[in-house]
Structures are given as C-alpha cells and as structure tokens.
Amino acid sequence: MHANHPINIEALLTHVPLFNGLAAEEIARIARSTREIHASKGDILFHKGDPCNGFHLLVYGQIKLAFTSPQGSEKVVEILTQGQSFGEAIMFMEKPYIVFAQALTDSLLLHVSKAAVFEELQRDHNLCRKMLAGMAMRLHQLMNDVESYSLHSGKQRIIGYLLRELPEADQNGINVAITLPTNKGVIASRLNLTQEHFSRILHELTELGLIVVEGRKIHIPSVANLRKHEG
Fold it and tell me: What are the φ/ψ torsions at residue 105 (nearest 5 degrees)?
C-alpha cells in the first residue's frame, strides 16, 4: 500500500448505492469514521482470521475474495469491481474474516468503521433495509453458484459467464467482443474449474467456431449461436 493525496470521502460516499437517500449530515458522520485505502496490484487487504472492524467499498479497481485449501490450492469466491461493497455480513456476525482479500489491480477503497455503521443503523431504518437487501443479493448469487457447480458442466459455466459479461446492448449481437476482467486462472477458480480445464473448454469453443480468443479479449461471432450451447 502506498500513500496518496487525500480524497473527498464525503463526495465518494454520496455516490455509493448503499447510502442513497442519506442526508448530508448523516454522510458527514459516516465519513468521519471512514478511511481511504490505496492498494497496489497484489496487495493483501486482510487475511483469513483477521478481525473485521467494518466493511469495504471499492471506489475503483478490482479485488478478489478467496481462501486457500489445506493442500495449498486457491479458490476464488468473488471478484469485486467498482461500486461494490464487501464484509458487511461478517461485520454483523462479529466474527473474523473467513476469506482473504487481494487487489487484482491498483485499487482505491474506503473502509467504513463498524461503530459508525451501527450508529447510523439506529438512526435510519432505511439504511438497515438497504444493507439487508445487499446481503440477500449476495446470498442469492451464492446459491446460483452452488447450483451451477452442481448441475452445470464446465462448458455451460464458461458460456454462462461469457454471456453475463456481455453489455445489455450486445445480448443478441453479431461480432461482439468482451475483455476478461482478470487473468484466466482467477476466472477459472471463480467458476470452480482448474486453469487447464478452463483453457481446454475455450479451445473447444474455438474449434466449434463459437468464440475467437486473443489474450484476454474474447470475440463472439454470434451470441445466439453461443447461447444455444448454454443449456
């Protein structure tokens, strides 16, 4: 981590969906207990077992949440991008972190203290509903992941991932392209695949003429044709 010029924390907090609708004085109270964290690519924000004293908001960059098995292999639980928050559930449970967090790119985060959040929750029930909704969405995504790992083949998981990464305007497009947000090893782990299996499936999809791979860029000649192989 490295020092940078101070930022306007209050201004950043006003753009966080979680705090939509809060009055200026409420934002100011939270800002006073919020600190900025500049993380360089590869920096560890916290380790499994560290105490959780608040939650993080990702202003820009990319963060992975993961854990390491006793055998030393890594399992990526989530890849977080701009505007997302993490750590709320653990904060409420008052337990240590169950995963580690690492910056995949240079990132700026805000760490909001647990004490400040609890004070605002007592004042504003709307904030409570928003935090519950955010955690419910996270749980819903987790259940979708479990269903995918249990019922879908590796090929189906990768096709589903590529389709989810497409912008709304390209959902049925021709000759569209996406850029993978991080390296293939991280994405493979997120999809519960080995990197070798992930690469084999990309090669298979290429042989079928469904995609063209150029590094991190994936060209899709016909989204409709790719979608036919998802089921």
Answer: -140, 170
> Half-sphere exposure (CA, 13 Å, Cβ side) for 174?
0
Asked if residue 122 has pLDDT above 90, the reply is no
Residue entry with tokens 């469904």: 210
**94 token code pair:** 């008052």
Strand, helix or coil for residue 24 = helix
Q: How far apart are CA 158 and CA 156, in angstroms?
A: 6
Q: What angle do the packed helices 114-123 and 125-151 form, to 10 degrees?
A: 120
Vertex 199 angle, CA 100 and 103, to 5°: 25
Q: Tell me the per-residue pLDDT of 50-107, one tens digit each, with 9 for 90 and over.
A: 999 999 999 999 999 999 988 888 899 999 998 888 998 898 888 999 999 999 999 9
Query: Using CA atoms, how far apart are residues 161 and 186, in angstroms rounded to an integer?
Result: 13
Of 119, 110, 68, the closest CA to residue 87 belongs to 110
Percent of the chain with pLDDT strictly greater than 90: 51
Half-sphere exposure of 20 (CA within 13 A, CB side): 7
Degrees to nearest 5, angle at CA 109 with 158 and 16:
85
What integer is the mean pLDDT of 120-149?
77
Q: How far is CA 228 from the centre of its chain?
A: 27
